[in-house]
Write a structure and sequence with these properties.
The protein is α+β, with helices and mostly antiparallel strands and 166 residues long. The protein is built from four helices and ten strands, in the order ααββββββββαββα. The chain has a single domain, classed as Invasion associated locus B (IalB) protein (Immunoglobulin-like), CATH 2.60.40.1880. Strand 1 and strand 2 form a beta hairpin.
């Protein structure tokens, strides 16, 4: 994984960077995605990769701190034009099927981005069967994520999370 990706993952998931190595452990890779366990999220598992088109870091994971829920987060070194805590309506187009959500802005030293929680884990797991995810918000360039071949990564995410329940 690129240094940018590791740094973004650590910053995105943890508020205190010095805890990152203890709280986030890489457990493998699948289909170009890195798989991590984040102890601070329940523990919850997360897959991450850098989008080849624009260098954005995409994270898809499970928050197991209470009832299981999923989240998707996108971080970039470029200004994301969203401030900490700002709410932004987003549209997810998954192979032509559209969903809406609300992203919350996050600013960390050197990175801007946002995360969107999902209360339906099937939304995340079902992405494995899809080919393209386009995320857009008014006044911003859409982010297109190629999902082809990610079955292995989503299978690994599911297996990782199942292993955390033991």
């Amino acid at each position: 994984m690129h240094l940018f990706a590791r740094t973004a993952l650590a910053a995105a998931i943890l508020i205190v960077p010095c805890e990152a190595q203890d709280m986030i452990k890489k457990i493998g890779s699948a289909a170009g995605w890195d798989i991590f366990v984040n102890e601070k999220m329940g523990p919850g598992c997360v897959i991450a990769r850098q989008n080849p088109n624009d260098g954005a870091q995409l994270l898809i994971g499970i928050d197991a701190t209470a009832d299981l829920r999923g989240y998707m987060a996108i971080y970039t070194k470029k200004p994301a034009k969203i401030s900490q805590g700002e709410k932004l309506s987003v549209l997810f187009d998954v192979d032509g099927q559209q969903f809406t959500g609300v992203a919350t802005g996050q600013e960390m030293e050197g990175f801007d981005g946002a995360s969107v929680p999902f209360n339906n884990l099937d939304f995340i797991y079902d992405l494995a069967k899809k080919k393209k995810l386009t995320i857009s918000a008014k006044g911003r360039d859409p982010l297109v994520v190629d999902l082809t071949g990610t079955d292995a990564a989503f299978k690994a995410l599911r297996e990782c999370q199942a292993a955390q329940k033991k």
